[in-house]
Amino acid sequence: MTNDHYKELNVFKKTLPLWLIAAAFIAVGCDKKDEKGSGGTSSAVVEKGKVHTVPAGTPLKLAFVTNNASDFWKIAAAGVHKYEQEAGVTVDIKMPPTGAVAEQKQILENLVSQGYNGIAVSVIAPADETAEINAACKKTNVICHDSDAANSNRLLYIGTNNYEAGKVLGGEIVKLLPNGGKMAVFVGTFSADNAQQRLKGIEDTIKGHNIDIIARKEDNKNSNLARQNVENVINSYPDVALLCGLWSYNGPQIASAVDAAGKKGKIQVACFDEEDGTLDGIENGIVACTVVQKPFEFGYQSSKILADLAYKGAAALPANPLIDTGVTVIKADNVKEFRENLNKLKSGK
């Protein structure tokens, strides 16, 4: 386990000088002029959209929107609350109860109509939500975290480079199947940008290693269906060698189904994120590895940047609009230390 995984605040502070450089670059390189946004606030035209500002000291209304209500977001919430304590601002956390696109669209519309000064959103289906995001960008600052909408007018993305994360897990899969074999992939929806990029990274990495993806299963964020999908693959493909979960809750469902089927040690499991069921599976020898993100960073940095954008305008934009928070591979040899540090993060210590 690397120490930098738990030094989120130091990592964040180190990026500040680059942001100041970005401010100078934007001032020179962009055709910038003052306009009036909603509520009479000034806006600066930037490459992806408008940065909306309010007078310093104005009480801010900020929101952090997830793509579902899984336990994964508890860690991101800890990051949000850490910034709230430091800065004395309030950031409302909004979760689509079932992870439906319609729910997230409604949340975005409500936040805009309620006059929020900034919204950070993990986009469920970028192609289906670009219109809503662009509409929101006309009235408030919108950034993406965890799952991007790169073709929208959002200002920046904070989170995992999901293609690179997929390559990391793909490398682990190659190690687990040195002689090749058949594997299946499970996720809530392949329409999400993070799912697409993770799978692409896996596919590109396993290419040429005689590893075939024989099944790709969606569960639409339904936990019962997620479990059924795994059971169906185990029963339908007796020669399947590895099961891969792309979203956080897929790991526990895969581990539970493999254990119940008596396939521990016979079917390898490789997945993403750090839900308790996944970490339990690693400790119990059911799950070989999981690639974990840094959701604490999603929450902390998103909150910080939204506040800075509202008060400082374009000067708060980073030099690179894609902020990669990195990943770590968790296996049997580092899972204990990881869980200890994870508990500290969740407790705010």
Mean pLDDT: 87
Element string (H = helix, E = strand): HHEEEEHEHEHEEHEHEHEHEHEHEEH
Give the DSSP E fraction (strand runs of 2 or more residues).
Answer: 15-25%
* Helical coverage, percent range: 40-55%
User: Main beta sheet: strand number and arrangement?
Assistant: 6 strands, parallel
CATH fold call of the largest domain: Rossmann fold
Supply Rg.
Answer: 21 Å
The span between the termini is 18 Å
Number of strands: 15
Q: Output the structural class.
A: alpha/beta
Shape: elongated
Indicate how many domains the architecture comprises: 2
The CATH class designation of the largest domain is Alpha Beta
Enumerate the strands of the largest sheet in spatial order, edge to edge or round the barrel. Answer: 5-4-6-7-8-14
Count of individual helical segments: 12
Can you tell me the residue ranges where pLDDT is under 50 for at least 5 consecutive residues? 1-47
Question: CATH H-level name of the largest domain... which superfamily?
Answer: Response regulator
CATH hierarchy: architecture of the largest domain: 3-Layer(aba) Sandwich
